[in-house]
Amino acid sequence: MKKAEIRKIVLAQRTQLAEKEFLERSQRVIETLAPFLNPAKTIASFKAIPHRNEISLDSLEGDFAFPRVISDAEGSMEMVLAAEFANSDWGIPEPVGGTVVKPTDFDIVLIPLIAFDKNGQRVGYGKGFYDRYLLNCRPDCLKIGISLFDPVDLIEEVESHDIPLDIAICPAKLYDFR
């Protein structure tokens, strides 16, 4: 399937999830993810977009950096250690103030997903922010995608600039693509 079609289908499935099912799926993902989050590691996370039914990782313990858009036009972002957040124009909680962490400092980057396929390719919201950011991370930085759903068989429109996942975690299983 093509990315736009996958995006449409999965976002509709998210909105159809009953609250209990959403919470159960989220909890299973968090339980699988937690062992990866060693406090000695430098980790980039994300704040869930509540109106998009994204998994909230707020219950996880640790000092995480979070994305903040630098330029919408260029599709660039930075990761920031911060304690205070405000909603962006897109309704995404972003750090206010804080300390910017260089991409090369991260051991792990947690990536919100709409979907992923059985090859580790991913579908996000289509702006390419994470692809551009991950390009600047170390080759050994672990890229972990977080999903509410199992993978689709194949994403047809993989482009040369698309950065695949190393691991994807969904409620039923952990997929290791390394």
Descriptive overview:
This protein is an alpha/beta fold. 20% of the residues lie in helices and 26% in strands. It is built from three helices and twelve strands, in the order H-H-E-E-E-E-E-E-E-E-E-H-E-E-E. The strands form three sheets. It has an eight-stranded mixed β-sheet. A two-stranded antiparallel sheet has the order 4-5. It is globular, with a radius of gyration of 15 Å. The relative contact order is 0.19. The model has no long low-confidence stretch (mean pLDDT 92).
Number of helices: 3
What is the general shape?
A: globular
How much of the sequence is in beta strands? 25-35%
Poorly predicted spans = none
Quaternary structure: single chain
String of helices and strands: HHEEEEEEEEEHEEE
- Percent helix range: 10-25%
Gyration radius from CA atoms, angstroms: 15 Å
Structural class: alpha/beta
User: The biggest beta sheet, please?
Assistant: 8 strands, mixed
Strand line-up of the largest beta sheet: 6-3-2-1-7-10-11-12
Distance between the termini: 23 Å
Average predicted confidence as pLDDT: 92
> What is the β-strand count?
12
Describe the structure concisely:
The chain is an alpha/beta fold and 178 residues long.
Write the layout of secondary structure elements.
Blueprint: H1 3-16, H2 19-33, E1 43-44, E2 64-71, E3 76-81, E4 85-87, E5 93-95, E6 99-101, E7 108-112, E8 115-116, E9 122-123, H3 129-134, E10 142-146, E11 167-170, E12 173-176
Parallel strand pairs: 1-2, 1-7, 7-10, 10-11
Antiparallel strand pairs: 2-3, 3-6, 4-5, 8-9, 11-12
